[in-house]
Amino acid sequence: MRTLARAFPAAADAPLTHHWGGPLAVPRDWSMAIAFDRASGIGFAGGYTGHGVAAANISGRTLADLVLGRDSDLTTMPWVGHRSRGWEPEPIRFLASTAIVRMLGAADRREDATGRPDRAYGCCARF
Fold first, then answer.
1. What is the pLDDT along the chain (127 residues), one digit of tens a residue?
2. C-alpha dihedral sign at 86, 91, 94, 97
3. pTM of this prediction?
4. Where are the beta strands (DSSP E) in 1-70?
5. Alpha-carbon distance 73 to 62, whole Å?
6. How far apart are CA 33 and CA 45, in angstroms?
7. Bridge-partner residues for 35, per DSSP?
8. Rounded to whole angstroms, how far apart are CA atoms 92 and 52?
9. What are phi and psi of 61, to 5 degrees?
10. Nearest-angstrom CA–CA distance, 108 and 52
11. Eight-state DSSP code of residue 45
12. 68 φ, ψ to 5°?
């Protein structure tokens, strides 16, 4: 609640009724990817890892260029055709993702309490 009040003072007294709490759904290397297969006509964009609005916008523009066969600055970006390595098999994947979610939650609580960045984020970035 303190983080919300600091970021959005006008909303400091607003009640919180909902929050996001879904499963960890990120590519193994936390990198977005965009691909288009001309033969099948199937395109894909994803892996936004918390940057959904901006990433979806640039992904849509990139996919449009790929579908239309236009060479552009966007079609040469590293996310075009990017493939992340797969996650480890179960139950290792489940255990690791659960640990990461818990570590990040604890880091958020420490940041809220201290007002300083927490070192856990650097640790989790390596996964």
1. 677 788 889 988 888 888 776 666 788 888 999 999 999 999 999 998 877 889 999 999 999 999 999 999 999 999 999 999 888 899 998 898 888 888 888 888 888 888 888 877 666 555 5
2. negative
3. 0.62
4. 33-37, 42-46
5. 9
6. 6
7. 44
8. 27
9. -70, -35
10. 20
11. E
12. -85, 0
Instruction: Tell me the residue length of the chain.
Output: 127
Q: Output the CA–CA distances (angstroms, integers) from residue 12 to 6, 9, 27, 79, in the order listed.
A: 8, 5, 34, 38
C-alpha 26/C-alpha 124 separation (Å) is 13
Amino acid at the residue 56: A
Contact 83, 103 (CB under 8 A): no
| Whole-number Cα distances in Å, 79 to 63, 94, 101, 124, 125 | 11, 26, 25, 21, 18
Residue type, 121: Y
Q: Judge contact between 122 and 105, C-beta under 8 A.
A: no
Looking at residue 7, its amino acid is A
Phi, psi of 91 (to 5 degrees): -90, 5
Cα gap 127→27, rounded to integer Å: 10
Q: H helices of 10-79, where?
A: 52-68
